[in-house]
Amino acid sequence: MVKVKFFGTARVLLKDKEMEGDFKDISAMIDAICEKYGVTKKDMKQYYVYVNEVNISTLKKYKTELKDGDVVYLLSPASGG
Amino acid sequence: MKSKYGAYCGKIVKIDLTTREITDYPFSDKERELFLGGKIMAAKIIYDNIKTKIDPLSPENMIVIATGPLNAMGAPCSSRFDTSTISPLTGLYTSSNCGGNFGMALKRAGYDAIIITGKSEERIYLSITDDKIEFKNADAIWGMRTQEAQKAIPEKGDKFVIGPAGENLVKYACVVSNERAAGRGGCGAVFGSKNLKGLVAYGTKSPEAFNKAKLDKVNKVWTTRLRNHPLTGAQVPKLGTAGLVTPMHAKNLLATNNYRSGKFEHFEDVNGETLADEYLVRNSGCTTCPIRCARVVKVEGKEVKGPEVETVGLFGPNILNHDMQSILDWNYLMDDLGMDTISCGNTISFAMELNEKGMWKNGLEFGKIDNIEQTLEDIAYRRGIGDDLAEGSRNLSHKYGGEEFAMNVKGLELAAYEPRGAVGQGLGYAVGNRGGCHLNGGYLVVVEGLGLNANPYTTHGKAELCITFQDLMEAASAGGSCLFTTYAFFPQPWVAKPNGLFTKIINKFITEVGFVLRVVLRVPTVLAVNLPHMLPHPKAIAAATGMKYTFGKFIRMGERGYNLERLIDLNLGLEPLRDDKLPGRLTDELQILDNPKSKVPLEKLRANYYRARFWSKDGKPTKKLIRRLKLEK
Which helix (H) or strand (E) holds B117? Predict the structure, then answer.
């Protein structure tokens, strides 16, 4: 089982803290989120994706494979001070 | 001295608390063009009046409370004012930017700035109502905390007061207006040293814009831009600045265990999402602010201002505390006692590590929170260990050792960003004129991982990016605007699609454009334009004042301010090669053992920075640069 945690404006958009499921890769995970929460893939492009605290931009991006026990973060770009 | 420009009152007064004389302070229109307002106007005044090292808590020190031309002009997020003085924490120039309405009240009373000098024999507060400035006895309110004192001052108007921490000369005491604070650098202790409890200001005047119709149009476009931007229109309003905790954790930027790590196991207990989900009553903001970053939370059943990311970070992960309610309670307590949460939290974590290492037995332990509330009270009243803690981390390290893990620069404690996860932020901390300040340091974390995702470890381009951001923020602050307005400088597509091809290209190449920035920084007037995607501040300043302000002139004005601050610091005894440095932990120890890049390569970054600033190799503005910036005496 993969745990997906929603942070930043992802939590605001999806109105949920996390979901669990078995996903082949990040792309399949995003499809599942879109189906469950009724959002679009375009909506999902607003977020950084981390697998086990590693940004997927340094892995295989949306083709990054997922396995049992992985934890995924969806994070929005942030600023403050 | 009246001004031909719009948006100014044309009046600055000097109030001598020793003699009780009030005199007009001359400030010409030429000086307004060069130094605009706020912290840069204040820096000019302090530069002209304090020429050598002084005791910041002596009557020789001065306080300049300055407004900016955009205050009370309807510009978004533009109610900010600055309190500048010589810091008792660093011995150098400090300027603390504060929200709330006091600055606008001062302006409506008819003053661009007030200068406070000397020391009153009796405890007083200043009552300012239009042209009338009165010295009022403060015996009845001396000893009161900041909220009670503001209520107890009978005069109508906005208040700006110190609490017990300022009265007792805690080196990082702040000054509070409503629930907002001029927090950093110990302005509150300077008030206390002058027997000044605070001020109340009320005015009936309306400073006029040079071209109101044009200004209204600029303000409308600017407000829309802030509302539609992903950072200022969604992330900050929804989650507050504490929304940064999660990305800071993810990017190894969350100061934890006195900066021994950039990640906190229990970050989800103290992040902005938890604050919003479980504690937020509503958000709120300053007058004219469409962002509304402030959190309203409950403390003992009362609705009060919630904590910012810095307070959450330094009283959460950095002392290994994951109890959010305790942070809310202490945040309110510190505001009420009148002390800076950043310096206070950082000093406490340093004391915890001293205790852990057996260097100072003080009872403070990481993860132990039942004695923190009492410790905060003890600091404000200088009781027991509180008397030492009230001196700040640098003075503590002089007494007990541990300089390499006393997390300050030039005496000012670092914010909650762990710079080994973003070395450009480390550079900013090191070279910042007021010490270890994330904002005065350029706030490069927003490029190195929080907003954009540029390489956090490379030294390429970091000096030039740091300077550009420092100068922009300096200029925005001088105009009277909140620094958060500069985040809309990032074009929306860069942050709306962080994984998009365009953003990836930006992330890849933004650190490689140092040479372009260097050309622009050399002659910023080449940017003598105001294009739609550039910051709207110069357009608003031009419409409000009638000055010919372009983006290039705006950034040059910020550069002038930054150099002026450095010149003040040099007069006060700054030795750049000795003082522009970081605690040893950040330059000598790896944050991540198997990542050899996870420490700050400061020498290289600093040399690049001095070069890109057109300073000498020993960190001083050259005579040529001083001439170019029109800073000759």
Answer: strand B113-117
Asked if residue B289 and residue B196 are part of one domain, the reply reads no
| Interface check A72 vs B, CB under 8 A | no
pLDDT at B1 over 70: no
Q: Residues B21, B168: one domain?
A: yes
The CATH number covering residue B534 comes to: 1.10.599.10
Partner-chain residue, chosen from A50, A53, A79, that has the shortest CB–CB distance to B235: A79
Q: Is the pLDDT of residue B305 over 90?
A: yes
One domain for residues B290 and B152: no
B406/B342 same-domain check? yes
In the block, which residue shows the tokens 């969806």? A74
Which residues in chain A are closer than 8 Å to B438, comparing Cβ atoms? Answer: 81
Q: What domain range is B613 assigned to?
A: 422-628
Task: Write out chain B residues lying below 8 Å of A81, CB-based.
Answer: 241, 308-309, 438-439, 443, 483-484
Which residues does chain A have within 8 Å of residue B230's beta carbon, measured at their own beta carbons?
A: 9, 46, 76-77
Q: Which fold has domain A2-75?
A: Ubiquitin-like (UB roll) (3.10.20)
Q: SS3 sequence, B165-220?
A: HHHCCCCCECEEECCEEECCCCHHHHHHHCCEEEEEEECCCCCCCCCHHHHHHHHH
Q: What is the pLDDT of residue B630?
A: 96
| CA–CA separation, B352 and B569 (whole Å) | 31
- The answer to whether residue A59 neighbours chain B at the CB level (below 8 Å) is no
CA distance B624 to chain A (A): 34
Please give, rounded to a whole number of angstroms, the shortest distance from the CA of B277 to a CA of chain A.
10
Q: Residues B306-320: what's their mean pLDDT?
A: 98
Whether B553 and B589 map to the same domain: the answer is yes
- Interface probe for A, chosen from B96, B184, B226, B235 (most Cβ of A below 10 Å), is B235
Of all residues in chain B, the percent with pLDDT exceeding 90 is: 91
- Mean pLDDT throughout B585-597? 97
pLDDT at B44: 98
Distance from CA of B618 to the nearest CA of A (A): 30
Write the CATH number for B308: 1.10.569.10
pLDDT at B87 over 70: yes
Give the helix/strand (H/E) hosting B82: strand B81-86
Q: Per residue in B247-296, pLDDT tens?
A: 999 999 999 999 999 999 999 999 999 999 999 999 999 989 999 999 99
d(C-alpha A59, C-alpha A72), whole Å = 13
